[in-house]
Amino acid sequence: MEAAALECPNSSSEKRYFPESLDSSDGDEEGILACEDLELNPFDGLPYSSRYYKLLKEREDLPIWKEKYSFMEKLLQSQIVIVSGDAKCGKSSQVPQWCAEYCLSIDYRHGGVVCTQVHKPTAVQLALRVADEMDVNIGHEVGYVIPFENCCTSETILRYCTDDMLQREMMSNPFLGSYGVIILDDIHERSIATDVLLGLLKDVLLARPELKLIINSSPHLINKLSSYYGNVPLIQVKNKHPVEAVYLSGAQKESFESILRLIFEIHHSGEKGDIVVFLACEQDIEKAYEIVCQEGSNLNPDLGELVVVPLYPKEKCALFKPNDETEKKCPVYQRRVVLTASSGESLICSNTVKFVIDVGVERRKVYNPRIRADSLVTQPISQSQAETRKQILSASPSGKLFCLYSEEFASRDMRPLKPAEMQEANLTSMVLFMKRVDIAGLGHCDFMNRPAPESLMQALEDLDYLAALDNDGNLSEFGIIMSEFPLDPQLSKSILASCEFDCVDEMLTIAAMVTAPNCFSHLPRGAEEAALSCWKTFLHPDGDHFTLINIYKAYQDMTLNAASEHCVEKWCHDYFLNCSALRTAEVIRAELLEIIKRIELPYTEPAFGSKENTLNIKKALLSGYFMQIARDVDGAGNYLMLTHKQVAQLHPLSCYSVARKMPEWVLFHKFSIANNNYIRTASEIAPELFMQLAPQYYFSNLPPSESKDILQQVMDHLSPISTSKKEQMCDKCPETTEQRCSVQ
Length: 744
Hints:
By secondary structure, this protein is of the alpha/beta class. It is built from 28 helices and 23 strands. Strands 4-3-5-2-6-7-1-8 form an eight-stranded mixed β-sheet, with helices on both faces.
């Protein structure tokens, strides 16, 4: 590419950025300052605002800024560039902007820039921050795409998106032709979607020599990346300030007491700065929140207010720096105590953090393909995670890390790298996606860490049971339609079955509610009875899935009739419901309805409340969740899974637990092996209905058990007429649906 001199900004709105223009010593500095007020933004053609120059000074102070010239040179010369840097070095915000400058310099001949993130809040916050730094409008030149939310236009130059959304885009655009530069950020998180993208993009790069791939990672993964991608250019960024780490070897056994003692010692010391506490799991966050709130209310007000912020990584929230207006309105000093858990590292976007407390362990969800269930396992975090938590303080010269474990524990018990999610999760959705892109010739994927063969076999078996595969093991037409929904394959199958059973409206509501965050608020201590009294108004005798429909309908009625948004929020607060989760469910449902319309699936008017509709909803649920059935084996609420010998209880908030009436057979949405083996979101089903709708070869493959014997007796007692109807229905469902539905 030819080089060009930097022109005076008022001479042309077609300003271009080249490596020569990146050296601040080149050109006439006085001339640039003289026309500064007239300098035009090359991305929108408008004059830069004063805020642009203020933020530019902050950007120039980032550790990565000194690497800009080197990065742009390597970007011009190579197809792949790896950027290694710790948290807070600026790679997630600056590298995408430099890539946008590169695309602008070649007139977007090969497309724009996309930057992936593992977490939704990070993608949104980075897009907002970068749009501000580039002095452009969010949603126009810079935007973001996260599940069920698209804040982009066809003219968006730089978009942030979650890795799973870019993966889904490959279903319709396999070679990602709308992008000239793809940035995979924070790949050390090792999510399934990021690992899949790393593998698939190898083939895409071969097919598109003009495409550039940038990989942002922590230093711990560089050796593995180098062997995976070969000898590619590397940019290494070091943070400015070393972080002091204090190891408290005896504190791990009494971590809660140690955490409380540290928080209040820091607060009494008078040193300013927020505190971030990394706990093992969400239950620990809730417990610590109650204790710190209770103890904090008794502190001397002269020390300032202690504001406790529970930050749940699974929910769409993140910690940001308080804006200037907020600080002006609050004359009393406020210290935030942020309680979070694993994966919360990337959600800390504030430079006001001066203290980090790390317990050094986490509760991980590990999937067992043999029993089709997750186990919650408490184990040490990895060394790379510990380092990431440490680097949260790298922007602060006086930051201090308190480790509630010894250095010996860190070197002996902590693994070097965080385990890849692909080796610990249910792979059914991933395999469905891989089968889908195989249609475009991208079926072979060279994974950085290959998944366990047992997990792959279980995923293929489940897709076969769900009729997503044909006799040759390829994706069936039914499977293609299932892959159109950004949902778990079982949930997609239930939605498709609801078209056959005339209950699409109700099934979309259920799908939205179980996909969104928990609609019930986290309860403070002492509020349990009041909350239960409120929730009883929504309980439905036919099961928790129906209760979710009641809650959503009540929320919709309130939204339609309320005078303002504040009234809706107050209603949710009064009924101990999570307003944000219900809004998310509303957005999810709207997108699912759009998909239904786009692929021309039949949609009937809602008939919720009738006996026929209730039966139809259960049929639709069973069509997808026949692998998640349990039986009360002793009449006391001890449920034995049909597929394995694990025993569980219904969740205390289940409508059956509240009514103290336990059904014999239930279909459930979620189950994890933990201290309390709770079945979540359960509804009663009749064994006769199960035998009519579950595939016969699935039933045959079930392990021997008393429950299977009972079901066999039920099948033996079914009349020949019922058996005939079952055969007609089984023959009719997939074929009729395939004839009716076409992917547009």
